[in-house]
């Protein structure tokens, strides 16, 4: 009976640790944008866009015109971004930058498979697709 209780506790502990570890997995990588919903961007333009998760819920990355920063709260399947900020430099790709940042802010859930991450809005529409860099 004692062995049974020990096995049950060990199983629950490993399940808890596995579940918690999943929410941290996306923060271990730099993500490169593959597509943005509604953004007329070339693959070359998209390849320069990134997203990184830092400590204390901070996020940053490269947008077409400059770097952005903000915060994001996430678990194993849900994500919520704060308002994302840039230094507001004017550039020819401001439309793509606005589409990228607003798509991140609209994201509510995400999935990951292999080296891919996909964000979705509240209706289940894809907002941004990423590829793992490292």
Automatic annotation (TrEMBL):
<dbReference type="InterPro" id="IPR038670">
    <property type="entry name" value="HslJ-like_sf"/>
</dbReference>
<keyword id="KW-0732">Signal</keyword>
<protein>
    <submittedName>
        <fullName>META domain protein</fullName>
    </submittedName>
</protein>
<dbReference type="Pfam" id="PF03724">
    <property type="entry name" value="META"/>
</dbReference>
<feature type="signal peptide">
    <location>
        <begin position="1"/>
        <end position="21"/>
    </location>
</feature>
<dbReference type="InterPro" id="IPR005184">
    <property type="entry name" value="DUF306_Meta_HslJ"/>
</dbReference>
<feature type="domain" description="DUF306">
    <location>
        <begin position="28"/>
        <end position="130"/>
    </location>
</feature>
């Amino acid at each position: 009976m004692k062995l049974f209780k020990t096995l049950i506790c060990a199983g629950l502990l490993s399940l808890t640790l596995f579940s918690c570890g999943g929410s941290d997995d996306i923060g271990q990588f730099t993500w490169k944008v593959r597509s943005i919903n509604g953004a007329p961007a070339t693959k070359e333009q998209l390849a320069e866009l990134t997203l990184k998760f830092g400590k204390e819920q901070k996020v940053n990355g490269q947008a077409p015109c400059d770097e952005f920063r903000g915060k994001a709260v996430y678990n194993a399947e849900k994500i919520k971004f704060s308002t994302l900020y840039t230094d507001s430099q004017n550039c020819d790709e401001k439309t793509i930058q606005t589409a990228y940042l607003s798509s991140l802010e609209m994201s509510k859930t995400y999935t990951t498979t292999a080296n891919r991450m996909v964000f979705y809005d509240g209706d289940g529409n894809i907002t941004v697709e990423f590829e793992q860099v490292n």
